[in-house]
Write a structure and sequence with these properties.
This protein has 250 residues and is of the alpha/beta class. Helix content is 35%, strand content 17%. It is globular, with a radius of gyration of 20 Å.
Amino acid sequence: MTPAPHPWRDALVAVLALFLPVACLGCGAPDRALCRSCRATLEGCPHRVRLVGGVRLDAAFEYEGLVRTLLLELKLRGRVDVAGPLGRRTAALVRRALAEAPPGTLVLRVPPSPRGRRRRGFDPVVLLLARGGVRGTGQLHRARARGRGLLGGSRHGGGVHGGSRHDGSLHAVGLHGVGLRAGAGQKERTALERVAATVGTLRAVRVEGRTVVLVDDVVTTGVTMAEAVRAVRAAGGRVVRCVATASVEA
């Protein structure tokens, strides 16, 4: 006898197959997003330390190999099941930075691009920190365009004690006459164009006289993190440490 069809069950299985990992992203072993062996490899990866904007940056990993694969799966394909192994070490660095900082230090995240936020539906840094047990962080603001209209929105946030949120917009600023190519993304721009497109795009609020730890997921050239440091300083705050999940070796 042929079993009766169950369209709803078949549909559920199909949906689950899209989200449940069937192979390790490191070695291809079945049934795990990251097998025990690859987890051990990840845990053995060294931390990275560099300077960004004159401030020490502690990175949980170097942005290469397995770490790069996991972060791309998280950010581009929404594989939130890989956030735990990455987030626990990131959160540990944040807690260490706070332990070495003055009491009352704020933790502020570098905001994702409006386009990335809309595409993913979540903030990778929020997720990574939450998987490591760090919650209630604040966020820098996207600066409002001056005389250019609104170029993009972003959530706004305060410090670890919370704060109001409202929409802002991205402000692309020219630097010493550098022209920005219309429609060019960061990857297509020269190093000088990246700086010109980033300076003035972030701002901090309610940080005057406060010490701050800044957090981002990936630091490559360091231009965005340096802009975050500038924004805090411009608002009267002092950045005592930067933390990232991964960094390209400088």
